[in-house]
Amino acid sequence: MWRQHLLKIMLPVPLLCAGLMLALTLGVSKLPPKIDWFDILGEGIVLLVALLWLTLIISSRPAGRVTEWLYYGSLLLVCSFFLDLIDEFVRYPEHIRVMSWLESLPAPIGMLLLTYGLVGWHREQRIINRQLRGRERFLRDHRLLDPLTQVYGLDYLYAVLVRDLELHHAKQQPLCLAMLNIQQFAAFNRRYGVAAGDTYLVTLSEQLCSQLRASDILCRYAGDRFVILLANTNQQQAEIFVQHVQQHLASLPALHETLALDIVACDVSTLSAMEALRHTEHALNSLKSPYYPLAMHMAQG
């Protein structure tokens, strides 16, 4: 983690040294009787806490926009608190106001940046918590999990589909299935080996899980197929979801460039569980994908 922030690690040192040199140039040292050691203790502790925040951010956060807000907000606080501490040892002439401005301005700006970063961190944590809750559900029903991808298998999909279709029939709510197929997956396994195919399936399932809502369920339907149950989702919303998945997967370098994907979304709210699976699979089989690495399609239910 430290390697991602080498510039951030080095930046505070020249900033604090520049502040110290400016203070010594513009001011004169106070005599010991004029120094308030209680103020120094309090301001020193505040500075150490701000430095601790900065260290925790650099050591625990990956590079990204949220980290930038947190880092620069904390850095401004460190600079402000450092100059405030130096002020206890140095006296400035009354006509020189620049040090007073440098002490006062960074703190509120830093607090605003830090707050904005904390909001972003909170949003990230909500997404992570959602994924952990989904993973916890998987672990509770471990016998129904696919042993490779750790998503639910066909038995669980069918049981939940029967339950949800009955519920949606009673409440007249929409329900859609999205089915994804990996083209020429058997040939991929023969060429690159089963281990490479397993790695691809695990990566694909993890990326799909990251795009789901808390109410959605991802299942492995067959060796090269996945099904996503989209509760309270009509055809138009399902198509938007498929487009979102298409854009997300197309931008992922981790997915193998020689494989192509087909995906369909069908409204199955008026069908039985078996009919819903057959209807969605028929829509998927009817697709004819062009020859380029990532091909995704939508079918009207």
Radius of gyration: 29 Å
Helix content: 55-70%
Catalogue the unreliable spans: 289-301
| Shape type | elongated
The SSE string, one letter per element, is HHEHHEHHHEHHEEHEH
For the sheet with most strands, the description reads: 4 strands, antiparallel
Largest sheet, order of strands side by side? 4-5-3-6
Please identify which CATH superfamily of the largest domain we are dealing with: Reverse transcriptase/Diguanylate cyclase domain
Number of helices: 11
CATH topology of the largest domain: Alpha-Beta Plaits
Q: Strand content of the residues, in percent?
A: 5-15%
Estimated structural class: alpha+beta
Distance between the termini: 47 Å
> Can you tell me the number of structural domains?
2
CATH architecture of the largest domain: 2-Layer Sandwich
Quick one: CATH class of the largest domain? Alpha Beta
The beta-strand count equals 6
Mean pLDDT: 80
Describe this structure in words.
It is a single chain. With 301 residues, the protein is of the alpha+beta class. It folds into two domains: 2-131, no CATH class; 141-285, Alpha-Beta Plaits (2-Layer Sandwich). The protein is built from eleven helices and six strands. The chain has helices at residues 6-10, 12-26, 37-60, 65-86, 98-104, 106-140, 154-171, 185-192, 194-209, 235-250, 273-285, and strands at residues 28-29, 90-91, 175-182, 217-222, 225-231, 261-267. The chain has a four-stranded antiparallel beta sheet, with helices on both faces. Strands 1-2 form a two-stranded antiparallel ribbon. A hairpin with a 2-residue loop joins β4 and β5. α3 packs antiparallel against α4 (65-86). It is elongated. Mean pLDDT is 80; it is low at 289-301.
